[in-house]
Amino acid sequence: xxxxxxxSPQPPPAAVREQVVLERIDRARRSRARVREERITMSHGxxxxxxQTLIEALFLSELGNPLLxxxxxDAARLRISGARLALTTDSYVVSPLFFPGxxxxxxAVNGTVNDLATSGAxxxxxxxxxxxxxxxxxxxxxxxxTSMREAAGAAGVQIVTGDTKVVERGxxxxxxxxxxxxxxxxxxxxxxxxxxxxxxxxxxxxxxxxHGVTVMLARGELDIEADVSSDTAPLNGLVAALLAAxxxxxxxxxxxRGGVATILNEIARxxxxxxxxxxNDIPVRTExxxxxxxxxxxxxxxxxxxxxxxxxxxxxxxxxxAGLRAxxxxxxxxxxxxxxxxxxxxxxxxxxxxxxxxxxLLVGDPLPRIC
Amino acid sequence: MRFVxxxxxxxKARALSAKITAxxxxxxxxxxxxxxxxxxxxxxxxxxxxxxxxxxxxxxGPGCPVCVIPMGRVDDAMALAGEPGVIMTSFxxxxxxxxxxxxxxxxxxxxTDIRMVYSPLDSLKIxxxxxxxxxxxxxxxxxxxxxxxxxxxxxAAAEGxxxxxxxxxxxxxxxxxxxxxxxxxxxxxxxxxxGHVSTVIxxxxxxFIARDYGKPVVVAGFEPLDILQSIYMLMLQLSGGExxxxxxxxxxxxxxxxxxxxxxxxxxxxxxxYFEWRGLGFISHSALKVRQxxxxxxxxxxxxxxxxxxxxxxACQCGEVLKGVLKPWECxxxxxxxxxxxxxxxxxxxPEGACAAYYNYGRLTRQRVKEASQP
Lengths: 371, 375
What we know:
The complex is a heterodimer.
Chain A: H1 14-30, H2 49-63, E1 76-80, E2 83-92, E3 98-99, E4 102-103, H3 104-117, E5 122-133, H4 138-155, E6 158-167, E7 175-184, E8 201-204, H5 210-218, H6 236-245, E9 249-254, H7 259-271, E10 274-278, H8 286-295, E11 308-312, H9 317-325, E12 334-340, E13 347-350, E14 356-358
Helix pairs in contact in A: 3-4, 3-6, 6-9
Chain B: H1 10-23, E1 30-36, H2 37-45, E2 56-63, H3 71-81, E3 86-90, H4 104-109, E4 114-116, H5 120-129, E5 134-141, H6 146-159, E6 164-170, H7 173-182, E7 190-193, H8 195-201, H9 207-213, E8 217-219, H10 224-238, E9 245-247, H11 259-268, E10 269-271, E11 274-277, E12 281-284, E13 288-290, H12 299-302, H13 318-323, H14 354-361, H15 366-372
Parallel strand pairs in B: 1-2, 1-7, 3-4, 3-5, 5-6, 7-8, 8-9
Antiparallel strand pairs in B: 10-13, 11-12
């Protein structure tokens, strides 16, 4: 609107001005990320915006190549002499090392198995690197390693190489573990969050937030007790059941740090689509919901270690749910929402109360060192 | 989940919404202020505005403890945290609030001993465990949190703990409401009263708002139906009858407040002659300091606090947002230079801040929300 010379210009109505501001913000959010902090803070490890910025602005910018570029998936997919392989790595710094339902050992195996499985690969071989603190009890390490053996057995993978380092007392917190894994992709499906398109269904494979809440309560800093245990589990069997149930799968992701909300945002951003989920349809255990209510945390952001988010073609959702529910780890799988054309890049939640709000990437770090 | 789901019932919300809409006089616009940041958070988190007719605008008020802390006090706290042998303890909300040289988080990353606590009593635990250190608690908040700080000081005194003190930044709600009522650039029709503050101070302190300013007040709970019902009660008052103070949150708020909590505050703290509020400037008798009798627990007496006044960043319009004169998106730096990850103003830091709530939950116009949620 160009005001004429005579008369005062009419300002545009508020809703129009608001839309202009929101579009400017949207452009700012899409612009190239830059690390503003001079030092690493805990937020850089929380899986939210700061982590994403660090990865984009430093790691991808320096190390990026045709295989390491956005959208980042849980594992790299490689083609070697005609074979399709998936390769991934993950480090585990969870505190406390032991928690109801698991410990850092089975977490380290399951986490890497799941990164391979959700890339559509059959996990085969893992490496294990240990960073141990001087003074750490051998009996505790033995418990951890036993759990790793059992977890590898349950997932049908072998730990085939490893490394041990010890650092001075105070330079680490007992035990850190890094695992890397390789798997083989034995189908022609192209899985990836960028494949999501309007009309697709969004599914979670079970109740969300169990692991994060369990670890937080296990720290004993909050005087809250609840009957919860970690959901840590290998997902390769469940993925195989799902892929056998329907060819309509577009993307799989395990919802670890940053929880389901972070995955939904990656879908919206990578595929430039909207995602609309219904709070009433998202399975959350009553104990987890209760703890989250008390602490003012949204379960959608709380880490899982044995749950995945699945995008399927709309018409494939029924078969996908049936396939998931037939497996012991998918009994409570549910469709939680759908992919929409508009507004692109944004995740919306229809609240149980009946309103609508945005679900953004997490800022800050309510739950440090959850995995 | 019991005692939660009942207050989030969509059917009841629809019924209330219809009643509220029916009470709107044709052509009239209503501006209602929710004083408390906790209400702002609930409104956005549950998408409550979807139930309100276009004629009703909710204006977000100053009742966010983190939002009203001026930059100079953050700098003072940083100076305290940097003193030799000091462990600074703070609520998580405060950790990302920017001072002139970064936030608590930044200082922590550089090696300053700053720890997050969930209760001031956790600071006492840290003090007991570290007798060779001096533990300071960054005390912030309205009358809601002041009693727990007061009880902690009393506990420390009873134990004879000599390495614990508080950096007192407690503020009081009534002077802030009065400042808003006297502000010439804002026309409000009524107030959604702060529920948690009122559990301590009761409802009587709001009576002047109805009596002297002719505006209705309804003290409200924090679930979405509480707020919707309070809006309905305000609209009933506005559609006829004398403005008065009503208590929607009677399951928690006694009309006369909590005398034990008030007693603890009165025993350990007294009003400061004046205190600076972020964006609102100096307001007389609007904050609390530690009484002389408890001076050995007062970090301001024990340490040299610089006490330098720092002007808010020029681009920041938190003051206008806190007074409800500007909507968050109307601020010049909202969402571009000032975001939750790199906040310039305090309103973008706390989850109770109007800007953070709008940015995180509400970044779509009502029209687009309607279009997008069509099946």
